[in-house]
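Quick log. Single chain, no ligands specified.
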Amino acid sequence: MYRDGILVEEDFPVRDISRHLADPSSTVWLNLRRPTRAEFTEVGEELGLHELALEDALHEGQRAKLDSYRTHHFLSVYAVAVDADDAALTMRELAVILTPQALITVCKDAEFALDEVVARWDRTPALAAHGVAFLLHGLLDYVVDGHFAAVQQLEERIEELDDLLFAESSRQIQTIQRRSYALRKSLVRLRRVVLPMREVVNALMRPDLKVVDGPLLPYYRDVYDHVLRASEWTESLRDLVASVMETNLSVQANAMNLVMKKVTSWAAIIAVPTAITGFYGQNLPYPGFGHQWGFIVSSAVIAVASLMLYFAFKHWDWL
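-> predicted structure:
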């Protein structure tokens, strides 16, 4: 509990929240980690929360959104992280309920790092007097910075593919295909989280909601700017991954064409001795039949025709 921007009490029972909120200068933060329905129902009754907000807070897989009720607002956000090994995206869902004097966070994933959020609050004690808006800003700032960091890490992974893009090794080609697919999948999941945050942060700054007061408005605009940059960056990376995948397919197609040209060239060269020896192997008399000079002529024709074809294909860059 904060009173006039100063932390005055921690770890008190839920049943004492309404008593503390009777003081207009008090602000309460309540965090619940994977609560049971009975525990959350107690909180709802204590604070007079809408049943739909309680239901959304308990069920996983909610879209990043902001729902407004008569006395409070419901907010759903996702913190993200990129795996260091395979670029897989990890998402941790957090439900937030805002009242004029209370911030309730429901961690649907036990590994949601709220300690970092608390550290951000402690670094800016001068803003703590703004109550719930101050606490919410620290939370959103942490979440959006995580989105921004994830986009940056994914961009670095895409840049690593440039060094492998024109590799001739079949193993590296398979690596490019696997990594490109993983990056595209991560970017699609990240886009589902980042894009709705534009509407969420923009709606929070609306004057009619009375969530953000004047002094904190520039801080929320800074968060909104980061959201816009992250969303635009995500869109551009999706196009870049698609370009990498298309380029990889083009490189493979060009390599296949080169192989086919070489195979065709050698097949044409091999066809010369096959045709000549096949002609001289027939059971009918032919020029030079039964004479040594016939063998010499046929061998010379084979050598000259094969060499002419070889140098012709070499000149056309088929070999």
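The domain at 2-253 is CATH 3.30.460.20 (Beta Polymerase; domain 2).
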